[in-house]
Each structure stands twice: as C-alpha cells, then as structure tokens.
Known about the structure:
By secondary structure, the protein is of the alpha+beta class. It has one domain: Lambda Exonuclease, Chain A, CATH 3.90.320. The chain is built from eleven helices and five strands. It has helices spanning 5-16, 46-49, 58-65, 74-98, 104-113, 115-123, 131-157, 165-172, 213-230, 262-280, 298-301; strands at residues 175-181, 192-198, 202-207, 236-244, 251-259. A five-stranded mixed β-sheet has the order 1-2-3-4-5, sandwiched between helices. β3 (202-207), α9 and β4 form a beta-alpha-beta unit. α7 crosses α8 (165-172).
Amino acid sequence: MFFTFEDVVRLSRVFRRRPCSVSDELRGWHWDEYPLAPAYNVRVNASDLAGGFCPTNRHIYVRYVLKAEEKPNFRLELGSFIHRVYHMSSCMVKSILYEGASSGEDFKDVFKSVSEGVFAKAYSGFQTLKVDFARRVFEVLWSYASNVYAAALDRSRTVSPYMSLDGLVSLVIPMTVEFPVDGTLIGLNRAIRVDAILHPYMVVELKTRSFRPEYEVGLASYALAIESQYEIPINYAVLSEVKLDRELKGLKLYEKHVLISDELRERFIERRDSAMRMIEEELDPGMPDVCSEDCPFLGVCNGG
Length: 304
Ligand code: SF4
C-alpha cells in the first residue's frame, strides 16, 4: 500500500520469477486492430468492468441506460475515504520531503502536525460515514504511513550524501498516486486514475474488499490503457487489499501479484464488448438471484 524502494525490489524479484509473454496483437498499442478495437462508440468506466457488485452486470445497464444515480452507503463511502486518505497522505509525504525533512524523526513531527487539516479535507462530503469512525480509520492509516516513510527516509539518507533531493524523494516513495491515463483509445473513459503506478511502471490497485476475479480485469484495463497511450509494455500489476482490524487499532495488508497475460487481456475485451453492447442496444441483463448488500443501486433495481 505505502510502497517503498524495498517493495519495488521485492516485487521486481517476484515478477522476474514469473515471466509473462504477451501476444503483440493484445498489446494496447494495437488499439485500432482486431481484437482490441472497440466494436461500439460508447465509452465505459474502467471501474464498471471491475466493480464486482453485480453478478449479471446490471449495474452497467442501470448506470448508462437508465441513467440512475448511485446511492452512497457505508461500505462504499469507507472505500472512497480510504482511497482519499491514501492519495492525500502520499502527496503529503512527498511535500514534506521536498520541504527538506532531515531525518525520520523530523519527518514524523511535521507529518503529525499537518494531520488534522488533512483529515478535515479527506472527510468532507461523506454522508453515511460517521466522523468518529472516519477519524479512527484515518489515524490508523496516517500512523502507518508515518512509520513506513520515516524509516524509509532514514534508510535512503545512508545511500549517498550527494543524492539530489528529487532522487531522494523518488527513493523514499517510488510511486505516483492517482496516475492519469486516457482510456478512450481502447473504449474506456478519458479520465482514468490508476490508484498508483509503482516505478518503473507497475500498476497498483487498492482494494478495501476481499479479492475478486473482476478486479484483475480492472488491472488489465489500466495496463491496456497505458499501453495504448504511452506504447510501453505493462506486464505486471499488484492488487493491494487493506483490512482494518475490528478495534480500528491496526491494519493488515495483503497483496496479489497479477500478470497481465493474454488470458486476462481477452477477459477484458470480452467484458468490455459485452458492456458496450448492453449500453448501445439497451439490453437489460436481468437481476441476479441475490443482490449484494453493498450495491449502490439496490434502491433502483429493487424499487426502494
Ligand atoms: S441492485 Fe442487484 S441487480 Fe441491481 S445492480 Fe445491484 S446487484 Fe445488480
């Protein structure tokens, strides 16, 4: 989640032992040729292909054909809040480092002093997430980030006394959060924001629910969008699952290492084309036997 240089090395070793060969026609830069060329003109959100809420994918029909609005619920808001804190804390780490924090202790002091202001911004706009609960979640994440990056700063400072400030920052926190990608060439929306890109070019997606196969399709959509825009190969991605303990005193992190293989790319194409067809031809896929209690469209499909 809060990745450091040591994580990049660790993940690179994991992936080097799992080679991933990809057929050239399934690379994103072949976006205008079969089988990657989108069959319809509509655009879908990458997140709709990887949502995992609805077994029949009716959420796509509801969002694009019925044009219904999502109703926020606690689980969804908690997920958004954690993503927001992740983004804001990563940016704040960089900001403090660029201001010239001289040691881990120094970094921790400043990071703590700005926490209240960041919490107020991160919490704004939520409806079902209670402030006390949000504050405890925030404190767990903030303190975790503080410990990780204070230690990383102290380690990185020992590498060389002549390192540039920019070099030092990229060693301490080697990732770009909410990395922007234009997905239009492969039939997705223009403003994709990948949770994080771990240098050099590993896609990271943060999840607050247990792993599901659809999440891997989401990773493939990000990888293909990056390949279509930047024309560099993306073979690897990481799903990072955050689990807070019941007492909200700590967190556990689980990782799933994903190869953006031919099989996964084909699953993405199949899912994207079926979503586009559903929208273009206004096909209602019907309801599943059981709806997820976290689905933001429960009120639409079940009549209130
Ligand atoms: S309410 Fe049920 S049918 Fe409708 S989108 Fe959600 S899970 Fe699917």
